[in-house]
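Researcher: Go.
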Amino acid sequence: MGQKIHPIAYRLGLNKDWQANWFSPRMSAQFLREDILIRQKIGKTFARKGISAVIIDRSGSKTKITIKTSKPGLLIGRGGTEIEKFRKDLTREIESLRKKYLAPNVKLRSAKNDIKIDVEEVKNIYLDAQIVAQDVAEQLEKRMPFRRALKQTIQKVMQQKEAQGVRIRVSGRLDGAEMSRDEWLADGKMPLQTLRSNIDYGQATSYNSYGTVGVKTWIFKGENFLTQEDEKSEGFKYNKNKK
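Model: Structure:
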C-alpha cells in the first residue's frame, strides 16, 4: 500500500495551520470560488517565482492575502508597482465573479472589496518542501538526469540543521523513457504515521517535450511535543505521574 494521506491535511490543528482562515455559513460557496480564483491567478502570474504558500484571511469585507516566496523582489517590483498592479487586476476579477454568481439583493455583491497583499520571504529555501519540489521540477525541465537532480537536492536539504529526513519522488517518463514509472530517493527519517512529526510536503510538475513529470517532496523537521501549559490550553488532562 502506498502513501495516500496528505501529510499536511493529516496534521491540521495539531502542528499545521489552515491556509484559508474565514467562516461564513451563507457566503461559503462564493468565498470558496474567490479563494480558487486567487490561488489560480497567483500561480499563473507568478509562475516559477518561488511561491511557497498563499494564506487567505477574511474579516468582514476585508481580505488579507499573504504570499510566502523565496523571491519577494520579483513579486513586489520596483517601488511596489508589480504587486499593486496585480492587486487591482485581482479586485476587478473578484468583483465580476460576484456579479456573475450573487443575486442583486445580496449585500456582498455591491460591497467594497478591500484586498491587502503581504509578501513574506522564505529565508531557508531548502527547508520548504514546496520550493524544493519546484526546484527539482525546473532542473528536470533543463534536461538534467533525474537521479543527479534528486541526489544533489537531497544533499542540500540534509545540510540544514533542522532537517532530519527528506524524501523526493518523481513520476512520469523519466529522462524521456518510453515507459513511465515512479522513482524515489530518501535520506534520514520520515515518520509519516506519527502525528507529532513536523513534516512539510510539496508537489510540482515539470513540463518537458516528452510529457510531464510529477515531483513530490517530504521534509521531516523533528517532532513537536506539547508542554504542560499547551496540554491544558488544548484541553488534555495532564498526568502528573507520567514519566
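Model: Residues 236-243 have pLDDT under 50 and may be disordered.
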